[in-house]
Specification:
- The chain is an alpha/beta fold and 316 residues long.
- It has two domains: 48 residues; 248 residues, Rossmann fold (3-Layer(aba) Sandwich).
- The protein contains 14 helices and 13 strands.
- The chain has a nine-stranded mixed beta sheet, sandwiched between helices. A two-stranded antiparallel ribbon has the order 1-2.
- The longest helix has 19 residues.
- The protein is elongated, with a radius of gyration of 27 Å.
- Pfam families: Rad51.
- This is DNA repair protein RAD51 homolog 4-like isoform X1.
- It is found in: Nucleus.
- GO terms for molecular function: ATP binding; ATP-dependent DNA damage sensor activity; four-way junction DNA binding; single-stranded DNA binding.
- Keywords: ATP-binding, DNA damage, DNA recombination, DNA repair, DNA-binding, Nucleotide-binding, Nucleus.
């Protein structure tokens, strides 16, 4: 029996126990008309205790209007800084969603991530957490993008923009999970500081920390992958953030597609949107981005773009 909740004396609890009522569930389910005949308790006492338990443990309903207001108040779309990419993503990166960029080594995944992070910090003036699992993040490259986009930037301007991008290195799945938990804890704090203006979380790359623990003798690898995927989804949904991850590709012998995103069928359900990135056969710095999964866009639509000194640039 929940003593603190019922605030019942020892004698009352003894009477209830004698009637076979020893749990909160049995008290809620008992007939308040019959119990008084089996004990010295009044009907009103039984009903009062039942109401107290139900009121303490029951969830409160939320109206559809309140749910809609919550969504609208936290919803946003982050521009990638590249018109063709924004068009491909139906406006940009959506809050509450996980977007995956998949491609082979050298296809430009990290360049895309750094370019989008730069655009969010520079153009929208929002904060970005960049979880780097491969030691590929480069602040010098970010500076190069900034000065290429606006040569009039002062040293202080550059410092202010860079302060909006927090890079955290995490070289195994446990480090990444700890990083995500730290972000959640910071978002739940009253004084959020940097995280009060956080809009985008990037993990580059998830494949680098998940692939080594899958298969072979790593029997718990799949569980850790599910744990990480759940943390990414909850971070996006519960805190209204946009989450972007990068993934590798593997050969798919069962379909006509030569390669497909790595990490298997289970992981394929995690991203809301998947973009397949590949090099163009025409020019060295030309890339092709193709939608392979989306709830808003038709699949297999593509856009061509360049990776230049200033980051992503539309194909003209």
């Amino acid at each position: 029996m929940h003593k603190a909740l019922l605030k019942a004396s020892a004698s009352v609890q003894k009477v209830l126990t004698s009637c076979g009522i020893i749990t909160a569930t049995s008290l809620i389910c008992c007939d308040s008309e019959k119990v008084p005949y089996q004990s010295a308790l009044e009907k009103e006492e039984i009903q009062s205790m039942q109401s107290a338990i139900i009121g303490h443990f029951s969830s409160f309903p939320t109206s559809g209007c309140d749910l809609l207001n919550d969504v609208v108040s936290t919803f946003f779309i982050l521009s990638t800084g590249c018109d063709h990419w924004d068009e491909l993503l139906d406006g940009g990166l959506y809050s509450g969603e996980v977007t995956e960029i998949a491609g082979s080594a050298g296809s430009g995944k990290t360049q895309v991530c750094m370019s989008i992070a730069t655009s969010v910090a520079m153009n929208i003036e929002k904060n970005v957490v960049y979880i780097d699992t491969q030691a590929a993040f480069s602040s010098d490259r970010i500076k190069e993008m900034l000065y290429s986009r606006d040569s009039s930037l002062t040293g202080q301007d550059t410092t202010n923009i860079l302060s909006r991008i927090k890079c955290i290195q995490a070289f195994d799945i446990f480090d990444v999970i700890n990083c995500l938990n730290d972000i959640k804890d910071s978002l739940n704090m009253e004084d959020q500081g940097f995280y009060s203006n956080l809009r985008l979380v990037i993990v580059d790359s998830v494949a680098f920390v998940i692939a080594p623990i899958l298969g072979g003798q790593q029997t718990q690898g799949h569980s850790f992958m599910v744990h990480l995927s759940r943390d990414l989804k909850s971070l996006a949904l519960e805190h209204g953030l946009s989450v972007m991850v990068t993934n590798n590709v593997v050969t798919d012998a069962l379909t006509t597609r030569k390669v497909k995103p790595a990490l298997g069928q289970t992981w394929s359900h995690i991203p809301n949107t998947r973009i397949f990135l590949q090099k163009s056969a025409c020019k060295t710095n030309e890339r092709i981005a193709t939608v392979v999964k989306s709830s808003r866009q038709p699949t297999d639509i593509s856009t061509t773009f360049f990776i230049q000194t200033g980051g992503l640039q539309d194909y003209t």
